[in-house]
Amino acid sequence: MNEPANLVPGRREATVEVHRPTPVPSGPVVPVQPNTIPAAASVVLPDGRVVTGYALEPAKPEPVAAKPPVSRAAVNIALGGIGFGAVCGGLFLLTAFITALTALVTQLITLAAVIFGGWVAVQVLNPSGHGGGTTVNIRKAVIKRSHFRG
After folding, report:
1. How far apart are CA 59 and CA 69, in angstroms?
2. Which of 16, 42, 45, 90 would be a feasible disulfide site paired with 24, CB 3.0-4.6 Å?
3. Helix/strand/coil (H, E, C) string of 63-92?
4. Which helix (DSSP H) or strand (DSSP E) does residue 95 occupy?
């Protein structure tokens, strides 16, 4: 005899019956107003016990009150204020840019004047010049009342 390993030899297991609960017909479902006790539903179990309970519906949130419509004039005023703020900000940025550009040009002109002035000073005060100008030998000259006599 071929019996499964988990069974005791010589002993027969009873067949297992699966019972599904069957609802007791309670008639047509009628919508129930809140704050009242709903009708009870009963279910008969396979062993004959009766389970009675209430069907619960999910709680529904209160409807949100409709917002009053916004007038067209209020929308236009709000949009005008936003536009005015944007224009003021743009003008502020424009004036700041022009001010910075003016300062930059002023600094560049000053830098060019300093460089050019330095170059001119080096050319004029350079002792090893090109030989131009008047050379005066002071050792031989006698200075008397702003007159040079040799």
Report:
1. 29
2. 42
3. CCCCCCCCCHHHHHHHHHHHHHHHHHHHHH
4. helix 72-125
Q: Extract the tokens encoding 130.
A: 């090109």
Rg (CA), the chain: 56
User: How many residues make up the chain in this entry?
Assistant: 150
Question: Around Cβ 38, how many Cβ atoms within 10 Å?
Answer: 15
Single-letter amino acid code for the residue at 117: G
pLDDT confidence of residue 3: 47
Supply angle C-alpha 55, 56, 60, rounded to 5.
145
Distance of alpha carbon 111 from alpha carbon 109, whole angstroms: 5
What pLDDT, on the 0 to 100 scale, is given for residue 51?
81
Task: Give me the residues paired with residue 108 across strands.
Answer: none
Distances (CA, A) of 14 to 7, 27, 69: 12, 38, 75
Average pLDDT per consecutive 10 residues, the chain (150 residues; last block may be shorter): 53 67 69 64 83 75 82 89 92 95 96 92 73 58 55
Q: Which two tokens stand for residue 110?
A: 């000053």
Per-residue pLDDT, 1: 47
Backbone angles phi, psi at 51, to 5 degrees: -110, 125
